[in-house]
Amino acid sequence: MLQYASKRLKATEEELLDALAGELTADHIFVISEILDHIEDLERRIAVFSRQLLTKLEPYKPMLQAMQTIPGIDRM
How confident is the model at residue 49 (pLDDT cuts 50, 70, 90)? Predict the structure, then answer.
């Protein structure tokens, strides 16, 4: 598991191993569940926003396609 740890972490290898050896309490599971629900809600909202934006941009499709030929400009 340590191989997947971000190099930006300040924790030592020993601290990471201690954290991985701990147990998840009901409170931990609740918080993780809430965070995952929040992430799923944000992803849903982003998808709705993206669809709305693409719908509004439809009249400008030819211009947007021309712009996408410029290096560094990509489709949303």
Answer: very high
